[in-house]
Design goal:
five-stranded mixed barrel; Rossmann fold; 12 helices; five-stranded parallel beta sheet; 4 domains; 10 strands; alpha/beta
Length: 341
């Protein structure tokens, strides 16, 4: 994008230079150097204005256009109303009437433009059906589905400030989440409420750019199809924990973010001698053993740990044995273990 804009600016300068040279050639009374100086100064001023307007979006421009049009219409209606008729009969007041109407146009257009800019988050002319928060529209977007909100780990990831995307939550996802929360099934109701709690938790994070897609996707009935269509339309990624939705996104060549894969990538690699914290949840088969689980789901068998069941302790890994379910880790609790060596 930056290279494209730079090329356009260079082309504009060259075009302005050629235009000034042609103008001085056609007009015999104009010298070449003064014309080139004035023309290139104007071109440089235009480019400087372009640089100063960096970050000013089409949505802001559409809001200004709308405000100017509404303000001009209001001023026209007022100036054409009977309010000015008694004054128009007096020729001595013609100049005052002109200045009054000019001031009316300026004030009306200014106020209408300011109101339109302040409410541009509700102004959907350039990007129909989408309402963004007042952020840079060029930032990377990720569409969030219901499963990611119910999963809940997205909130912790956002709190860590490592998540560099703007979160876009469609209205139909919110509706689905609300329907799950209102379900008569207790388990579904708990999931729905958890998803709503996670969403409210994210909304309170001031550093997170949370955006809402306000309207439905036309000609799409299934939520998964709507998500894929929306992500494809907005050139966004898809954040989900739903395996089937992820495969559907891959089929449509849409990149998707897997929270489970991220968590696995961040899990500590255990080997002989590694010291980890683990919560012991139940007794083991042999005397004195207790069972806990690592963050990736691997079973951890702790020797001398039965009396610590229900507590989190620090242990040292003795061996790692591959199993059909992944791996089984054996460790021993030593009372003198307090920190990594």
């Amino acid at each position: 994008m930056n290279k494209t804009i730079l090329s356009i600016r260079i082309f504009f300068l060259i075009f302005s230079l050629l235009g000034c040279a042609l103008l001085s050639y056609v007009t015999e009374d104009w010298n070449l150097l003064p014309v080139l100086f004035v023309g290139m100064s104007v071109a440089a001023l235009v480019i400087l204005t372009d640089i100063m307007l960096r970050g000013f979006s089409l949505r802001g421009l559409s809001a200004i256009t709308f405000g100017l049009a509404v303000g001009g219409l209001i001023a026209y209606l007022i100036s054409s109303s009977p309010l000015f008729e008694p004054l128009e009969t007096d020729p001595d007041l013609a100049e005052m009437i002109f200045l009054s109407r000019l001031a009316l146009y300026i004030i009306s257009m200014y106020l209408a433009t300011v109101v339109a800019l302040r409410g541009k988050d509700e102004f959907n002319l350039v990007i129909p059906y989408v309402r963004f928060s007042a952020q840079n529209v060029e930032s990377a977007l990720v569409v969030v589905d219901t499963s990611a909100l119910i999963d809940g780990r997205i909130a912790a990831i956002c709190e860590s400030r490592w998540f560099g995307y703007s979160l876009l939550i469609p209205r139909f996802v919110l509706d689905e989440l609300q329907a799950v929360a209102d379900s008569s099934d207790t388990a579904r109701k708990e999931k729905g409420r958890k998803g709503l709690d996670v969403l409210n938790r994210i909304r309170k994070m001031k550093h997170v750019d949370l955006r809402i897609h306000e309207s439905d996707v036309p000609d799409r009935k299934a939520v998964d199809s709507k998500l894929v269509y929306l992500a494809e339309s907005l050139k966004a990624k898809l954040l989900t924990t739903d395996y089937n939705l992820a495969k559907l996104a891959e089929f449509h060549q849409i990149e998707w973010l897997n929270i489970t894969s991220l968590v696995k990538a961040l899990n500590q690699e255990v080997s002989v001698g590694t010291r980890v914290n683990v919560e012991l949840v139940r007794p083991g088969k042999d005397s004195g053993q207790a069972i806990g689980y690592l963050p990736d789901g691997s079973m951890l068998v702790v020797n001398n740990g039965r009396k610590f069941i229900g507590h989190e302790i620090r242990v040292e890994v003795d061996s790692v044995v591959p199993s059909s379910g992944g791996k089984m880790v054996f460790a021993t609790h030593y009372p003198d273990i307090t920190s990594d060596s």
